[in-house]
Amino acid sequence: MKRIAIFASGTGSNAREIIEFFKHNKDVSVEIVVSNKKNSGVLSMAQSNGIKTKVIDRDYFYSSEKMVDLLKNDNIDLIVLAGFLWLVPNYLVRAFQGRIINIHPALLPKFGGKGMYGMNVHLAIKEANEFVSGMTIHYVNEHYDEGAIIFQASCDINEQDTADEIATKVLKLEHKHYAKVINQLLME
Length: 188
Ligand code: GRF
Known about the structure:
Elements: E1 2-7, H1 13-22, E2 28-35, H2 41-48, E3 52-55, H3 58-62, H4 66-73, E4 78-81, H5 90-95, E5 100-104, H6 118-127, E6 132-139, E7 149-156, H7 163-187
Parallel strand pairs: 1-2, 1-4, 2-3, 4-5
Antiparallel strand pairs: 5-6, 6-7
Helix pairs in contact: 1-7, 6-7
Bound molecules: 5-O-phosphono-beta-D-ribofuranosylamine.
């Protein structure tokens, strides 16, 4: 059995897709959902699927290594960031070397780095008059959006697409691919 921990701060639509995908899977289980937002919808969604949740604050995440104990106690094989905005601290990257992945709503290395999240990304893409965007699944290291790329998928952008419309197209790609790529990584 391979065990996943999902980290999410936002609406958690990717987390929901991943939970759905592995719901009846005998080889992979979503063991825990971790969030830094105590009222985020992702927590209630996880709980209603019978998945354990943990709310963390900055001290817990950055000033202790308790996160590692928690994840090791659960025998976590892979940490999946799904709209998790905090930079992953070095101790955690070291403890889970090559076993933390993230999804980014653009074709890295373009439109990545600090501050490049959510609508900021799509507004920048619109501003730059890009005619292609997409999403990137990559390993996580100590720097925002810089780990090795695992998988990318792209979509066309029309001149008249708004940033919101670009966001919708990209999110659709994320939902289509993230869980499948996770599955593939775990089966390797
Ligand atoms: C996604 O666009 C993802 O690429 C980014 O944050 C967003 C999360 O959306 N890292 P959701 O919370 O999964 O709906």
